[in-house]
Amino acid sequence: MEKTRLPLHLCHELKTDLIINRLYMFFLGTALLALFYYRTTTLSHIIRTRETPLVPHLLVLISELLFTFLWVLHQAFRWRPVTRTVYPDRLPGDVKFPPVDVFICTADPSKEPSLGVMNTVISAMALDYPPDKLAVYLSDDGGSYVTLHAVREAWKFSKWWLPFCRKYELKTRCPGAYFSAEESSDGRFISCSEFMAEKKEIEKKYGEFKESLEKNSVNASSSASRDHAPIIEVMNDAVDSGQQEMPILAYVAREKRPSRRHHFKAGALNALIRVSAVISNAPYILVLDCDHYCNDPTSARQAMCYYLDPEISPKLAFVQFHQKFHNLSGHDLYDSRLNYYWRRWLGFDGLGGPSISGCNLYLKREALYGTKNIKNDIDLNHLKKSYGSSNELIRSISKKYEPRLSKDRKLTDTQAKEVGFIYFSVVEDTITGEYLHCQGWISVLVDPPSRPCFLGSCPTNLSDTLVQQGRWALGLMQISLSKYCALLYGRGRMSTLHSMCYAAFSIDPIYVLPFYVLAIVPQICLIRGIPLYPKVSDPFFIVFAFVFFASQLKHVQEVLSYGDSLMSSLYELRMWMMKSASSYLYASLGAVLDKIGLHTAHFTLTDKAGDDEQARLYQEGRYDFQASPVLIAPICSLYIFNVVSFVVGMARIVQTKSGSEMLVQAFIPLFGVIVNYQVLEGMVLRKDRGRISASVSLLSAVIAIFVLCFGSLIFIY
């Protein structure tokens, strides 16, 4: 009895970080007030006297106001950072565990190789959870025969793999990770001849499994389609009374037509929600990306530490796990750890819970449906306005509904008809309306223990990183420009600080505006001898210096306190500059054009297929600049522009002896040039495949000269 009274989870407030954060807010906030006092008095003086051009001062003021606005929003993340601890050993017996559905999405086997996707599928099937309460669904948006064949082969291999994992209680249940590890066998059984014999046999089966997938993937690039009928197949050829029980495994390819919007991954997940409701209808859903395999089989039990807690469960919408990656190098050139986001998530969690991070979360189906608001006597036709036309789906919303999948796991005629109907209607339908809003719900972030629960693959070249960041930024900007903008839609639905967190996260891409202003305007003024900042002897010089160094030191402190190295802060800063110059630029333009109907947003997959040369450069800590000129040219143009402005500006300072009043403006381009010196290396010094091509360097130089000439003409006035 005493054991049941022990808490299943604990929340720990990071008091040291909290104190540091609030002191930082106070002192930097005070400095910013002084900074804007200087700007307003200087601007009013210029308007009266006209002794210096007004436009550059006005642009810099606007950029500093935008930076400050974003800074204020981000302080919500720092208000109350917390961490959490779970105690799965205190959970009740397996018989009390609720069912769990697992959703995995893939779209193109040429960019998301089948072997990696199937490793994720098999690792999900092998979770340390009652198999009769587990169902795994793979959504194949390409409708590829390559992926369908791979799922069938994965099902056959799992007949051998799952019993082996359970028998020897393996911690690593992703077969690819298990057999590729230097010490893949469990130390407790390494001297056991039976274990070694079984392991050898399973490894042979895995080799045959890999060979089968490789043979079938020869024409993977041509197998995916954007125009195909729906396909649903529940694997059932291995179910028999003499075999250990297996989870449900279903292959799902929703209908797609070029003329109809399909909403990309969101549409795929929406389809899985509907199909799973008819087949298994688990109250909890684990959402995974196809390259994020289950590294710790206890993740479901960790999530249940919250869902089986009667105090928090009724209001808990989802449990979010961290994203960790298995292919990181010691350098992390592209900031692929994403710790910048996860540090903010600690503060997010302290204010009501983080936002969904795309994958690695256990979601409550009831929270998604919004069934708390549905009365028992409601008209079914009214529900169809929000949930679509499927009668079976409407019935599944009831807590009393039990899916009727036969023992041989073959869909009945009724189920097949209903699932097919769901598919033909789901292309345009989404679960929308008055029921789908998570007002009153909270979420929690599970801190990564010594063993991450999920491991994915991250981009290992600059091109994929910028494309991925641009895709994320585009989605965030689309939200910010819609009626769901957090600052507006969040009012009354969550606390002010919580809505500030959502707003700060979703409008991050507008950093592009002040970034470009401060990367161009002070530099042009440096060349033309127009001072924008106070002299070294002016007391306000200390204010500007304090704002800059306090911000940089706070960033370093947060990186170090999170357990990362000092170099990580440099990698994060550099990638922030590159993202702002390229990804955020195109994402913001795309979102605005999409909003006014001049452009339709497109979803670009991150290529997860390996490349030996890219991997070598990444492991050596050298940037791979082989990317589209559209992505690289803005970065190179700004770099060349800042190098030229610094050299010419310093020559002018020496000639006119104006170092006191132009010091800050000389420091700005110098800082950018030093932080991004790898760009210079890529354009001038490197001769390997990862260098910046001469054509891109030339194009960037032309753009830089044009910006310099055009800006100089404008700033005359």
From TrEMBL:
Where does this one sit in the cell? Endomembrane system
Its GO CC terms are: endomembrane system; membrane
* Residues where Mn(2+) binds: 265, 289
The transmembrane segments are 20-38, 58-77, 510-530, 625-650, 662-680, 692-716
**What name has this protein been given in UniProt?**
Cellulose synthase-like protein G1
Give the membrane topology.
Multi-pass membrane protein
Q: Where does UDP-alpha-D-glucose bind?
A: 111-112, 141
Concerning SUPFAM superfamilies, the annotation shows: Nucleotide-diphospho-sugar transferases
Q: Name one GO biological process term.
A: cellulose biosynthetic process
Organism, per UniProt? Sesamum radiatum
Which keywords, in A-to-Z order, does the entry hold?
Answer: Cell wall biogenesis/degradation, Glycosyltransferase, Membrane, Transferase, Transmembrane, Transmembrane helix
Q: Does the keyword Glycosyltransferase apply?
A: yes
Pfam families, alphabetically?
Cellulose_synt
Catalytic residues (positions): 141, 429
InterPro entries named in the record: Cellulose_synth, Nucleotide-diphossugar_trans
Q: Which GO terms of the molecular function aspect are on file? A: cellulose synthase (UDP-forming) activity
